[in-house]
């Protein structure tokens, strides 16, 4: 008969408890289980001193090479020289130019090409908003919207990048500038199947700027009609401007998440002290406010003691408790090769401190700007990144 048991209820309960105790005694207890290993293995793809984006063949070959060497992330520039590197209705409406006019980029959507090939090869793609609020002085953007530009106390606007290139800076506090940048970013995250979007120090502006009419009016409205200090390094003046940029970043973060909740917000600044005091970018506060979900700190140092010192800063240690924190490593520049031994030592230092991984600046220098042969450098990277590993899970529920 179904449910029939010939023993009394109390006896049955005792038997059941004895069974459970026996099972617990002889069954091994798993106290904890380690998560599967992950690591950010990234590289920036740029159109400065680099040919990687200037032909379909170069771009596809680069993605395939990186996949073979067990890289798992690319950060391709999508906003540079005052142009987008994808067909942009937003840019065309503001500047009259929908895409970078370089002949090798015409008739192409480089971002979509990269996305297609990274998906095929298992890499994540996080477009990099490289120029941020910076623009060439002779760009259509700067010429057509002079009221958007900020300047120094003496009204000068030109900022020399590398003591050569004449740049100007859009005013991050100006509502029309904010709307333009937000529209560009939302356009990307809405129209492309990407894993994230990345900003860097150019999402601030040089500390000696900020004396334009709009900013002065805004400052006076909040300080009983007083003008800001003549000393552009005045701590309170630095803090006020940095906080205004943080307010905009908060609005931008919300706009990104509204357009595409699954897009990661990444930041690749310099160390905090330099970013804050040179570019008014307070990434430590951004991280504490939850405005960034991945942090790749550019630590381009030649001496290991200096490199390690930046990795061990308190704000770095604090951030890695909340989000994946990786380190940007310089793999070489034109006229400034970086030896493989330094790259290996820096990667080891990152791993020793349980940071989330690395990204290299920039693609060409991984193989072609060093003292070793390209074959030697590729073989070394394949060894350093063996076995293949996935990226950390970056988005929080």
- Return the CATH architecture: Alpha-Beta Barrel
Tell me the helix content. Answer: 40-55%
Structural class label: alpha/beta
**Which blocks of ≥5 consecutive residues have pLDDT under 50?**
1-7, 9-13, 15-33
Radius of gyration (Å):
26 Å
Choose one word for the global shape: globular
Average the pLDDT over all residues and give the rounded result: 92
Distance between the termini: 51 Å
Question: What fraction of residues sit in β-strands?
Answer: 5-15%
Largest β-sheet summary: 8 strands, parallel
- CATH-defined fold name: TIM Barrel
- In CATH, the homologous superfamily goes by the name Glycosidases
Total number of distinct structural domains: 1
What's the quick description here?
The chain has 397 residues and is an alpha/beta fold. The protein has helices at 9-26, 56-68, 89-95, 110-121, 140-144, 175-191, 213-222, 235-259, 272-279, 283-288, 304-311, 314-319, 340-352, 363-367, 374-384; strands spanning 40-45, 73-76, 79-80, 83-84, 124-125, 134-136, 159-161, 165-169, 196-200, 264-268, 294-298, 325-330, 332-333, 336-337, 357-361.
């Amino acid at each position: 008969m179904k449910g029939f048991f010939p023993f009394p209820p109390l006896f049955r309960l005792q038997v059941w408890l004895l069974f459970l105790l026996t099972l617990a005694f002889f069954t091994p207890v798993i106290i904890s289980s380690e998560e599967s290993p992950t690591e950010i293995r990234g590289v920036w793809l740029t159109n400065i001193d680099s040919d990687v984006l200037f032909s379909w063949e170069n771009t596809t070959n680069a993605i395939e090479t990186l996949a073979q060497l067990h890289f798992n992330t690319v950060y391709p520039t999508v906003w540079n020289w005052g142009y987008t590197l994808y067909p942009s209705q937003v840019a065309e409406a503001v500047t009259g130019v929908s895409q970078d006019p370089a002949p090798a980029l015409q008739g192409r959507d480089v971002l979509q090409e990269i996305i297609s090939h990274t998906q095929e090869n298992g890499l994540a793609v996080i477009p990099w908003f490289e120029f941020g609020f910076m623009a060439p002085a002779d760009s259509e953007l700067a010429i057509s919207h002079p009221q958007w530009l900020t300047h120094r106390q003496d009204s000068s606007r030109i900022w020399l990048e590398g003591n050569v290139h004449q740049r100007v800076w859009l005013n991050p506090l100006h509502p029309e500038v904010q709307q333009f940048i937000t529209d560009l970013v939302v356009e990307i995250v809405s129209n492309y199947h990407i894993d994230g979007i990345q900003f860097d120090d150019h999402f601030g502006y040089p500390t000696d700027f900020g004396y334009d009419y709009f900013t002065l009016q805004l400052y006076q409205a909040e300080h009983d009609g007083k003008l800001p200090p003549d000393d552009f390094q005045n701590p309170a003046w630095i803090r006020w401007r940095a906080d205004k940029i943080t307010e905009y970043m908060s609005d931008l973060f919300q706009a990104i998440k509204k357009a595409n909740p699954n897009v990661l917000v990444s930041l690749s600044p310099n160390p905090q002290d330099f970013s804050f005091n040179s570019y008014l970018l307070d990434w430590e506060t951004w991280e504490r406010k939850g405005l960034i979900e991945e942090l790749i700190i550019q630590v381009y140092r030649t001496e290991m003691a200096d490199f390690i010192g930046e990795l061990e800063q308190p704000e770095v240690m604090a951030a890695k408790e909340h989000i994946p924190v990786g380190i940007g490593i310089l793999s070489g520049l034109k006229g400034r090769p970086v030896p493989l031994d330094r790259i290996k030592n820096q990667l080891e230092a990152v791993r020793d401190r349980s940071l989330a991984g690395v990204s290299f600046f920039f693609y060409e220098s991984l193989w072609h700007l060093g003292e070793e042969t390209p074959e030697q450098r590729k073989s070394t990277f394949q060894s350093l990144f063996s076995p293949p590993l996935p990226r950390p899970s970056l988005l929080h529920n």
